[in-house]
Amino acid sequence: MRVALFVTCLVDLMRPKIGFAAIELLEAAGCTVVVPTRQTCCGQPAWNSGDRAAAAQLAKKVIAEFEGFEHVVAPSGSCADHIRNEYPVLLAGAPEWQARARALAPRVHELTDFLVRVARLERVPGCFAGRVTYHDSCAGLRRLGIKAQPRDLLARLPGIELQEMSGAEECCGFGGAFSLKFGEIAAAIAQRKCACACATGAAAIVGGDLGCLLNIEGKLRRMGDETTRVLHIAEVLTAK
């Protein structure tokens, strides 16, 4: 099947290797992967900040660039949720674009969900070994039902031990603009998340949204932890 990868802003700017890992996983599942070169932001920051005009402009751009593909996959539950669930709401005042948004929506997937439910990946290419713990991101879990899928994929790595943390489903404190507007609250939430993760004795904290992971890693380092790794699940599943 022909799949378009929506890279996401954070992956593109902060950790591009996640995008390459996502391509490797999709190709391992038998997909032909295309990365549209003119893609930019999904518009979620503008939408969350109340700039509806900018959010709508970006939504139309994404729809025009991706609607020709059989499936669209993003290594982020947050971006996938925004394109899939918010575009039809955002474009309610533009019937033609809203119809195009609705047509695209069911073909937009978070990476692990796509690999498990749609592509039915049989074998992961990585060989990561050691104890890890998994953080469930808010958008992926609550909006897209991403819970079992990443754990299913991790279980296919023979050398891995998944140790669940207390409060795995709780927010890490990032929440996009939330962490900027409510810094003290966000920092306290992040500290609790890091404490729960470290209590598992895991060598790595794994997740599916880079925003969460950057927030967790930043808090860990400020707490003096220089050894616990913080990795996107695509990096783990393709580790050599």
Report on the structure:
The protein is of the alpha/beta class and 240 residues long. It folds into 2 domains: 117 residues; 108 residues, Rossmann fold (3-Layer(aba) Sandwich). It contains 13 helices and 8 strands. The strands form 2 sheets. It has a 4-stranded parallel β-sheet with strand order 2-1-3-4, sandwiched between helices. Strand 7, helix 12 and strand 8 form a beta-alpha-beta unit. The longest helix is centred in the C-terminal third of the chain and has 16 residues. The protein is globular, with a radius of gyration of 18 Å. The model has no long low-confidence stretch (mean pLDDT 96).
Short description:
With 240 residues, this protein is α/β, with parallel strands linked by helices. The protein is globular.
Order of helices and strands: EHHEHHEHHEHEHHEHHEHEH
Structural class: alpha/beta
Into how many domains do the coordinates divide?
Answer: 2
Helix content: 40-55%
Strand content: 5-15%
By DSSP (H or I, 4+ residues per run), the number of helices equals: 13
Secondary structure tally: strands: 8
Strands of the widest sheet, in order across it, are 2-1-3-4
Q: Pick out the low-confidence regions.
A: none
Q: Which descriptor suits the 3D outline?
A: globular
Mean pLDDT: 96
| Ends distance | 26 Å
Spatial extent as radius of gyration: 18 Å
Main sheet properties: 4 strands, parallel
What order do the helices and strands come in, and which of them pair?
Elements: E1 2-5, H1 9-14, H2 17-28, E2 32-34, H3 44-48, H4 52-66, E3 71-74, H5 77-90, H6 95-104, E4 108-110, H7 111-118, E5 130-134, H8 138-144, H9 148-154, E6 160-162, H10 178-181, H11 183-198, E7 204-207, H12 210-222, E8 229-232, H13 233-237
